[in-house]
Target: Mitochondrial import receptor subunit TOM34
Amino acid sequence: MAPKLPDSVEGLRAAGNQSFRNGQYAEASALYCRALRLLQVRGSSDPEEESVLYSNRAACHLKDGNCTDCIKDCTSALALVPFSMKPLLRRASAYEALEKYPLAYVDYKTVLQIDNSVASALEGINRMTRALMDSLGPEWRLKLPSIPVVPVSAQKRWNSLPSENKESTKKSKETTKSRVPSAGDVERARVLKEEGNELVKKGNHKKAIEKYNESLLFSNLESTTYSNRALCHLVLNQDKEAVKDCTEALKLDGKNVKALYRRAQAYKSLKDYKSSLADISSLLQIEPRNGPAQKLRQEVNQKLK
Model:
């Protein structure tokens, strides 16, 4: 005798989750369908619950290779709760499988606005950038659909979720960092960095950051790309991001004077005067006559009095 099915939305979703974990994707999908029908019969509005059910059913479709229905369910989930991480990632994967690379790029890019450490989105952007460069040429960015701007509220919602809901972000970025770039990747990274440098000269620091981001996806072994992006963060008063970029630059080149100077500037803005002085001292050991560093040391010393 078959076990009796749960008669609640929560019970059906839990049963569906268990079937999914067991690799029974068709059975899981059917359970999510029943839960969705029960929600509709109930007539009560619970957009978050409904969104999760659509997203979970989309995961079943994706596992079964049914990318079209996966996209439909992810789109339904996102209509109920915009900028939800899992349906965005699942839809991106489905678009990628269907070779709809511009649409996949937009979804991966949207995820990175919510959390820029999601390894699967970073890797997806890397793949999509390569595919789009190959298929559309150097002007591929001009042929993309518009990328939605993620509101701060959506980012805060994600940051407030329990840690178990963020398992997709636990994969360390070291996996992408450990990849040795090919000669072609290094050249693409160089070209993108130069485009970023040109944007800096024009005062367009936000766009320059995007170029440096793309450059680092192809090759993250160039210290100056990090220190150049740090400059943009400084101009935009994003001091913590500047510190991070300078630290990455110095891991690659401990004598990167610009990285030391910019991190000292960022620490000063953050009122961490001791760290600022330490970087200035390191810089002046390399270049004892560096005028801007000497001036910055005087300013920091004034703050410490």
In short: Residues 183-201 form the longest helix (19 residues). The mean pLDDT is 86.
